[in-house]
């Protein structure tokens, strides 16, 4: 009777949902449901001032933090990176002054603008380099900043 009672009562999925031994586990149809991001919630803002200008209570920094932590922000940036790569591959290397290259140059300006806005939002949210967790303390962000700055300088020389 003890085994039957365990299978039908105490060990069922409905009782596991309410069990204090499994507080973070949700069962739906016998499988674990929900995303890890949903359970963790939004990332907290760093407690340091950003660039010694934006305190954690500053509305501009709070807005930048909100945008950077939107659910699809990183997905949007990855789509723009993919489109930028496709545009780079579509350029005509033989005729530099072709109509296609002129149109792609304007797309390149737009892509660089999106990447610049992304970098500025992240710098406003995280700070530049001095605090733990700052933007340039992560290798990928450092590489991103070098690419964006080089593209902006290149556009400056083209004009």
UniProtKB/TrEMBL annotation:
SUPFAM superfamilies: Voltage-gated potassium channels
Topological relation to the membrane, as annotated: Multi-pass membrane protein
Keyword hit for Glycoprotein: yes
Origin: domain of life: Eukaryota
UniProt-annotated location(s): Membrane
Upper lineage: Eukaryota, Metazoa, Ecdysozoa, Arthropoda, Hexapoda
Span of domain Ion transport: 71-156
Transmembrane intervals: 72-90, 110-130, 139-157
Keywords: Calcium, Calcium channel, Calcium transport, Glycoprotein, Ion channel, Ion transport, Membrane, Transmembrane, Transmembrane helix, Transport, Voltage-gated channel
Gene3D superfamilies registered for this protein in UniProt: Voltage-gated potassium channels. Chain C
The protein's name in its UniProt record: Ion transport domain-containing protein
InterPro entries found in the cross-reference section: Ion_trans_dom, VDCC_alpha-1_subunit, Volt_channel_dom_sf
């Amino acid at each position: 009777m003890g085994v039957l009672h365990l299978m039908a009562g105490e060990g069922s999925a409905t009782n596991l949902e309410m069990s204090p031994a499994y507080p973070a586990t949700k069962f739906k149809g016998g499988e674990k449901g929900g995303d890890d991001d949903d359970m963790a919630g939004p990332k907290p803002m760093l407690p340091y001032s950003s660039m010694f200008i934006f305190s954690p209570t500053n509305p501009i920094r709070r807005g930048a933090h909100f945008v950077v932590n939107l659910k699809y922000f990183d997905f949007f940036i990855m789509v723009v990176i993919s489109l930028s790569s496709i545009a780079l591959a579509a350029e005509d290397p033989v005729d530099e002054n072709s109509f296609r290259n002129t149109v792609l140059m304007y797309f390149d300006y737009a892509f660089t603008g999106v990447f610049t806005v992304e970098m500025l939002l992240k710098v406003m949210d995280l700070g530049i380099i001095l605090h733990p967790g700052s933007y340039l303390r992560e290798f990928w962000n450092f590489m991103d900043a070098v690419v964006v700055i080089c593209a902006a300088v290149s556009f400056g020389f083209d004009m």
